[in-house]
Amino acid sequence: MQRAGDPPARGVFITFEGGEGTGKSTQVRRLVERLSASGIEALATREPGGSAGAERIRGLLLDPDHPRFGATAEALLFYAARADHLETAIRPALAAGRWVVCDRFSDSTRAYQGALGKLNGEVVETLERMVVGNAGPDMTVLLDLSAETGLARAALRRGTASTDGFEKESLSFHRGLRQAFLALAAAEPHRFVVVDASVDMDAVADAVWTAVRARFLREAASV
Ligand code: TYD
Q1: How far, in Å, CA of 223 to CA of 221, rounded?
Q2: Domain spans, the chain
Q3: Cα 34 to Cα 77: distance, rounded to the nearest angstrom
Q4: Nearest protein Cα to ligand 1, atom 5
Q5: What is the DSSP string of 91-113?
Q6: What is the pLDDT of residue 159?
Q7: 45, 166, 174: residue to mutate for ligand 1 pocket, most atoms within 8 A of CB
Q8: What digits encode the pLDDT tens for the residues 176-199?
Q9: 144 bridge partner residues
Q10: What is the pLDDT of residues 3-29, one digit of tens each?
Q11: What is the CATH number of domain 13-215?
């Protein structure tokens, strides 16, 4: 039982994963709004980025005027950004009892640089142990969508804005990406929740909320 003077209980860490155009940022926002309406304060954040230092590294990684780095350099940069993000934003928030909802995290490195970038999985897992250790997400929501629909949605959202190197990848890359995320989810069924992202965003938000309540808020069934 929590007593006056006790440190606050650690918050819950939830990440969203999926390909381009799956609606992750919208769903992060929707979940944080619902948590807030239930009296739970949550930090909405994203990767790469989420802290001042990590946002600077994001600028390097997504610079539309620079071709993509190789998979090794990318993995090191993503983990450098993640180290700063964890140290200055995620860990302090969780320690203060706030929830953290993050748009992409380590599973994106596993999928993009590992499975698709052909970087040895052991390299990614070594970096993961060094940087994240046991501070990984309590739940990961995979927004699952066909590559065709995801790319069409992403193009619509982008309009005439310039594309970064990741968005220039081909349809077959995005098909592979979907399979890589599904394989990660199948390997860790207790952490992952796979949500069909082809339906409208209210229905996706409802499915996410149902999963979060079932896992973490069982006692608050009326919320
Ligand atoms: P962003 O504009 O945030 O894309 P999205 O809206 O799809 O999340 O760009 C992030 C890009 O970086 C995205 O294409 C995925 C890629 N990425 C990796 O390759 N590895 C990683 O570890 C992370 C966090 C992102």
Answers
A1: 6
A2: 13-215
A3: 33
A4: 20
A5: HHHHHTT-EEEEES-HHHHIIII
A6: 84
A7: 166
A8: 999 999 999 999 999 999 999 999
A9: 196
A10: 666 767 999 999 999 999 999 999 999
A11: 3.40.50.300
Is residue 78 in contact with ligand 1, taking CB distance under 6 Å? yes
User: To test the ligand 1 pocket, which listed residue (72, 102, 104, 163) has its Cβ within 8 A of the most ligand atoms?
Assistant: 104
* Ligand 1 in reach of 17 Cβ (< 6 A): no
pLDDT confidence of 133, banded at 50, 70, 90? Answer: very high
Name the residue at shortest CA distance from atom 14 of ligand 1: 166
Instruction: For residue 48, report the distance from its CA to the centre of ligand 1, in Å.
Output: 6
Which DSSP category does 19 fall into? S
27 within ligand 1 shell (Cβ under 6 A)? no
| Eight-class DSSP state of 88 | I
Distance 159 CA to ligand 1 centre (A): 18
The tens digit of pLDDT for each residue in 65-85 reads 999 999 999 999 999 999 999
- Residue 113 has a CB neighbour count (10 Å cut-off) of 26
Amino acid at the residue 166: F
